[in-house]
Amino acid sequence: MANNQCSACVDLKFPCRPEYVGVARLAILGVASRMRFSYDDVEDIRLAVGEACTTSVEWAERNGKADTDIMLHSEIGEDSLVIDIFDQAGERKDDGRENESDQEPENIGALLITLLVDEVEVVPHDEGTHVRMVKHARQR
Amino acid sequence: MNFKMETHSIESEPPVIELEGEVDVYTAPQLKQQMINLLESGAKELIVDLTKVDYLDSTALGVLIGGLKRMREREGNMVLVCPSPRILRVFEITGLDKIFEIYHSLEDANESMGKESG
Fold first, then answer.
1. For testing the chain B interface, which of A17, A21, A47, A99 should be mutated: the one with the most B CBs within 10 Å?
2. What is the fold of B3-117?
């Protein structure tokens, strides 16, 4: 990830636990606010990052990996923001376990990310998952 | 963490859970527990007031969906108060604005509940 060319990069490493997801949201809010994004776009980015980190936290809890970290890497480009989120939360393998009525959030989270950013890619990475999201600044 | 939750119960009116701040993966379990408490105490109607909420994620949506399901299983109902366009947008883009009854004010929500039970 360090090989990507960008005008500026901001990295954040934080524990893969629920109480730190808000820290990631605050950090990306600060990054996106420095760019040519509209207020709504900044909010979209904040929510998308929150959803991606929440999914990591949920898988970490499910896989007994809550003692791992999440790495958030953001690349501030001229017209776009690229956000990479790497977790070590283990494999995202559905074991078919029922989780009462709270089974939906993961699907809603994935749907939200798709709707809120322009590009999203989710791939296995080492001991976890890499989520790449790209948001383009629109001409105003 | 910027989160507060208060429950108001006035006789003859449905209980109101008033939320403030960020409802996310960290704080939504508190909302879920409060809903369970109200259900166990026999509540069949519930208003969740999101007026002072400035962030709401899929975990919170999941808890609200769970609450609505449980209320409807008891032939009851749960409605939301959400005047904030930003929070309302989360419901709209996920299509959940068609699942939930959402009102702009607590007065409107109370009035709708009164009509249903009356």
1. A47
2. Transcription Regulator spoIIAA (3.30.750)
